[in-house]
From TrEMBL:
This is sn-glycerol-3-phosphate ABC transporter ATP-binding protein UgpC. Pfam families: ABC_tran, OB_MalK. It is a peripheral membrane protein. One of its GO terms (biological process) is carbohydrate transport. Belongs to the ABC transporter superfamily. It comes from Mesorhizobium zhangyense. NCBIfam families: PRK11650.1. It is found in: Cell inner membrane. One of its GO terms (cellular component) is ATP-binding cassette (ABC) transporter complex, substrate-binding subunit-containing. The lineage of its organism: Bacteria, Pseudomonadati, Pseudomonadota, Alphaproteobacteria, Hyphomicrobiales.
Length: 365
């Protein structure tokens, strides 16, 4: 996404709960109209950061700006944000229309303006037929649409989503993911979205901020993070199935190699400064979809015959488990050309598509 003026700016933000440091001097600029996803495992600080932006938590240090205004100590209602939570938090005694209009009535908006906003949100989210129903008569997906609609009628510039799809089944999650993407394309509002689901992150985001221990590990476009993870944690967290990791030694020089338990991988196509490549313990990473097998594999810069150990049918394809360099290795194979446990096949890959990580630090080499 092209850089625009910052819609949300976070400056040196820290948050402590007693002696526990939850967020550590975070700096983050989110462009106007950008869809930013905060991604990470449970306890990494992503929802806490979102709640700080929303004003639901008082920060320990730093500043928060929304559309150029310092809102660090503003009340949530005065920040110009709309928030959608993991729980729908709908009023059960009210109709859908009542839930959508409640906040607007409290704010003292005229009746015709309320009706106009409800009609617009209902049309965008395709919930017009549900307006007279109560939440108990709605499905989970319909309730979440209403929850999104309640944020939408506020007519704000910034929307915050805190794992809004995690309570839904897989099919509904997929459907609503598409609806949220359509919503962003139509409105072009700034959206900050928290999830631990990498599929949501990869499909929705303009940029992803991968978090761990209250620190942003990497901030970049989804494909850039996927192809060039900054450290082993990011590489392991993003991808399903995960990246393959093989522990071994990097032998530097003009013709660097990675060596591990009978395997020697030439790294002359790997993107680093060969002359300065240091020798030492490292971890070689390659994604399952970047590994070929059979005739294709034999023509690649690195290939090796292996034995099939486990097969996991996935419908459209299959995951094949084997070993390389003393470590587990998975790759994808076509379902139409089934392999069997015990088969010996050639696997291969281009080291230019691999990732090398320093073993002690986990950082990308």
């Amino acid at each position: 996404m092209a850089a625009g003026k910052p819609s949300v700016s976070i400056k040196d933000l820290s948050l402590n709960f007693g002696n526990v440091q939850v967020l550590q001097a975070l700096n983050l600029d989110i462009a106007e109209g950008e869809f930013l996803v905060l991604l990470g495992p449970s306890g990494c600080g992503k929802s806490t950061l979102l709640n700080c932006i929303a004003g639901l938590l008082d920060i320990s240090d730093g500043q928060i700006f929304i559309n150029g205004k310092n809102v660090t100590w503003e009340e949530p209602k005065d920040r110009g944000i709309g928030m959608v939570f993991q729980s729908y938090a709908l009023y059960p005694q009210m109709t859908v229309e009542g839930n959508l209009s409640f906040g607007l009535k409290t704010a003292g908006l005229p009746k015709d303006e309320i009706a106009k906003r409800i009609a617009r949100a209902s049309e965008i989210l395709q919930i017009e037929p549900l307006l007279k129903r109560k939440p108990s008569a709605l499905s989970g997906g319909q309730r979440q649409r209403v929850a999104i609609g309640r944020a939408l009628v506020r007519d704000v510039d910034v929307f915050l989503f805190d794992e809004p799809l995690s309570n839904l089944d897989a099919k509904l999650r997929s459907e609503l993911r598409v609806e949220i993407k359509r919503l962003h394309q139509r409105l072009a509002n700034t959206m900050i979205y928290v999830t631990h689901d990498q599929i949501e992150a990869l499909t929705l985001a303009d940029r992803i901020a991968v978090m761990k221990g209250g620190v942003i590990q990497q901030l970049d476009a989804p494909q850039a993070i996927y192809n060039r993870p900054v450290n082993r944690f990011v590489a392991d967290f993003l991808g399903s199935p995960s990246m393959n990791f093989i522990s071994g030694q990097l032998e530097g020089g003009e013709k660097p190699h990675f060596k591990a338990d009978g395997v020697s991988v030439p790294l002359d196509r790997y993107a680093f400064d060969k002359s300065s490549a240091a020798t030492g313990a490292c971890i070689f990473g390659i994604r399952p979809e970047h590994i070929a097998h059979g005739e294709q594999a034999a023509a690649l810069p690195f290939s090796r015959e292996i034995e099939v150990e486990i097969i996991e049918p996935m419908g459209s394809d299959m995951l094949v488990w084997t070993k390389l360099g003393g470590s587990n290795l998975t790759f994808r194979a076509e379902a139409e050309k089934p392999l069997k446990v015990g088969d010996r096949v050639i696997v291969g890959f281009d080291p230019a598509r691999a990732s090398l990580f320093d073993a002690p630090t986990g950082n990308r080499i």
